[in-house]
Structures are given as C-alpha cells and as structure tokens.
Design brief:
Helices cover about 30% and strands about 15% of the residues. The protein is α+β, with helices and mostly antiparallel strands and about 575 residues long. The two termini are about 20 Å apart.
Amino acid sequence: MIRHLAFASLIAFLAPAAASDAADGQASDHSAPAPGEGGEASSAEGAVAPSAEEPSAEAPASEVPAENAEPEEEEAARDAALGDDEGAGDAAGADLVDAILPCGVRVIAARDASLPVAAVVLAIEVGTRDDPENLPGLVHALAYHLHQGNRELAPGEAIATAHDVGGLASMAVGAAQVRFESVVPISQLDAMLRVEASRLRAPNIGRELWLKSLSYARADAQPRALVHREVAAAAWSDPGMAHDGRAVGKALGDMLDQAVGAQLSRLFDYRAATLVVVGPDDPQALLARVEPLFADLPARPRRTIPGASAPAPKPGSAGPRVHRRERERGDTLLWAVPGDPESRAWAQVLCGTINRQRRGEDESVKAKVRCTFFDDPRRPLLSLRAVGYDLAQGPEPMIAARLGRIRAAGERAAAGEPSDEPELDALIEAQRARMEADIAFALRTPLELATYLSSAEEVSLRVGSSRRRSEVVLGLPVLAPGEGGPGAEAEPADADPDADASAARGDEASEVGGAAAAALIETIPSLLDTRAALLVIDPEHELPPGLEPEPEPAAQPEPAAQTQSPVNTQPQESQ
C-alpha cells in the first residue's frame, strides 16, 4: 500500500516519541501488501478538488428501513456477543464509542493519549470493484476529485487544513474501500472534522477540475501486484476485481459534468461511510464534537454493507476450484479471507503456524508448505504453496493433510479431549500471542489505530451509540476469560504445592494451546477447507485427479453503441 504523507514538520515533532520505541515489531510471516490493485492511491500535494451533487434522499433497495430493522432482542444478543457494552464505564473495559448518527454515518471514537495529536479517517465502503464496466478507473478518479475539496471549502482547503499546521494528509483506494486519512495537532481537530463532514457534500463538478483530477489519477504510481488481479477476482468470485482500477481512459475524459455528479452521488454516500476519530480526549467527548457537524443532514437509514465473506465451497465438490492462467505451476492454493479484523488476525496466526508446522510421518523429507498473507481491509488473500509433493496427486492432498491436523487439534480442544499433538497446540498458542503483540505494537500511533478501526465489523444499524471494548472491535486474537487468557481462573487455594512443577506447566501450556486451536477453527473454518480454495494452473498442464476446471462464463452480447452520456448508463450496483 502506498501513502503520500505531507510535510516533514509533524514527523520531526513526533520523532522524540518515536525514538522511545526502540524495538521494531515483527510482522506476520510472509505477509504482503494488498492483492491486485489493493494498493492505495496517494494524495497529490497542493491539489484542488471538487465534489459531487447532494446525495439523493432516496434509499436504494438494498437499504434496511428503520421499521424493518432486526428485533431489538436479537440485536441486543448479538451486541453482547460482539462486545457491546452500552452504558458501561471504563471500569468495564469499554474504551471506545461506536455510534450511528441519524443521517446514517457511522462514527467510531477512541482514545490515544500518547501524543497531543488527533487522527481522522473517513472510510467509504466502495472501491475499484464498483467501477462500471464501461468506466474502469472511475472510483479511483472520483477519490482524487473528492480529495481536493468542494463548493463549501476553498480551493485546496481540504488538504491545506492538515498541511498548513504541519499535519499529514493521505488517501487510500482499494478494491472495496476508499479512505481519506489525516493527522493534525489536537487544537486543529475541529477544523479537520469540518472538512470530513463536508467532503461528500456540494461537489464541484466543473469540467476543468475534473480534468485536473484525471491528471492526478493518471500520474498515480501503479502498485506492484503480488497476486494478479484476475486471480484475486477468481479467488473472491468477484468479477469487479479483475479490471485495472487505476486506468484513466477516454471514457472518463468524455464524462459530462452531470455524469460526474451522478456517479459521485451514487458511489460516495455518508450512509456507507465510517468516520473514525482518535485523540487524547474521552471518546464520548470526541463524539460530541462530531455530532453537530452532521446535524443538518436529513435523517436516513444506514445502508446495509454486505460483509466481505469468503465464497463457500460448492456442494458436492471434492477439491478446490480451478482457475486456468498461463505460466502458473499449479503448486499453490489461494483462499479469500473474510474482510474483518478478527478473521485477518487469525488468518495470520494460521499462516505463522503453517510455516513452522512439522512434517507429517508420511511426507517426504523435502516436503514443505509455505504460507503468505496478502492483507487488505476488505479483500485479503491467503496462499499456501507446496514443495516436494507427489506430482501425480498435485499439492492439494499434502496441504489438506497439514490443515487437517490443525483442524483436528481444534476439534479435540473444543470437545475437551486430550491432545494428540501437544507441540502443535503450543505452536498455535505461540503464534496467537505473537500476533496479538504485533498488532498491538503496530497500532500504537493514532493514525494506524484509526485506519485499523475503519475496517471494524458493524454490529448494528440502529441510531445511537454504545461503548465497546477495543480488543473486540479491533478483532485482536485474544482468548476469552476461562480459556487461558487474561481472565482465566486462578489455581484453587487447596492445590498441592508439592505437585511436579514441570508437569503443571505442561498441562497449563496444553490447555492454553488447545484454547487457541479451538478459537482458530471457530473463527476461520473456511481457511481449513481446501474445497474453499482456488488452484491456479497453466492451461497446458494436466489437472490433478478428481479436479475439474471452472466452466467458462457465457458469452455476453456486444453492447449497443452508446448514444447518450454515461449518466444514463446502468452501471453495476454499488457495494
């Protein structure tokens, strides 16, 4: 991912605090940037931006009207399961506020008192996958257009609000999320909140400014795709990810002003946005500074944002799906990882475990399985590459056996049965603890914390606020009380003090490791099933036995020649 950070003055300001953190966090094994486009578009310094027409007051069919919201009893139960702690104080561990305002925007406020600065992130649940077929690169270009300001802000004010006080301003465009990020001194927080509360309103859709936005989009650096976008689209079963989301073609340049405004209103809407504010103040006080800025917007239900769930295995399938692509050796299985913080964290726990797992008794001496995790807020991927497998059988049997051992360890632990592989249980717990520490270390600054919170799973569409525990919202791979985690029960008072200490430590490690294994298989069961994976292989290579190629998509009729402006076309539905 690419970030363009503004002036160096704030970096110098932060340097003394950063110097105190001498230790460098270790990232998850073989972790890599986002797949496909997945990279983030950098902001153009000194850019001047327009925006879009007032979002339509009509709610699309995908929205959930207030009267059709889920029953309060069911939602309350789900909130409790996900860590909702409405009305609780800090003593109960509820250290951030998660709110839905009447206008439909979601606000997350969290406290970070490490520095006298505030981080503000506006994340919109739209991405390059939402580009219309006839307008590839549209979302990327519109993000640049919004990054420059609108009719309520002076030319360049959106960027200058952060830059002129030594702050940072950046933009991120991914396959399914667009973010506008900033860090400012706490004294300038209100000014930055005003920018984000105005960004999606009153767009400036003048021709000259649109062409300028296209020039910035065209000059944006193309990220190095570690997974080809065609393969990522096949893994996610999402055709919208297969095209070049950074393209700036003639069709974009030919768009009329009204077409630009209509697409901005369709794609960028506060009802599909999350505003994250992280600062040294109490979260409730931060929320109070945000609420008046959105009070003049009409009350509208929040859009239902489809969860980024991975494709389920096809019924009756005996192995992974197959995707043909030239120059692929067919030694790798690729999984779509659910796009929520908890699944992403546990996927990295699994990755670290796979990379350190011992060979099976029936595997050759050269047998290896290497895991790589490609992170993205909404469309992450996990790949397993096999080495030293039986060429006649393909990589799937060996990978399935490795995953089967991990799944069996979790199932035994969940059933309360003794472990057959205590070393594997201990390895899973070690990776869980390492991942928890790594994420906590990476989120020690306000901007990183705000960016991570912007992908937090939504638990309610109801208007209102609730205090929640940060480790739950962040999806940290922690163990629940009673599972060997921080809240585990203490030893009985009448325990035998003369018991063998080493045996006691072994039993405790086994219990904790078993709890981690059980939590892993419960959180990401699809990543332990090779039927949910994708095998990418060259068309000239023979398929392993029992596998069949994916059927070719039906040929689509050639579209009729366009005689109207793009505003009258019917693009694919927004997320």
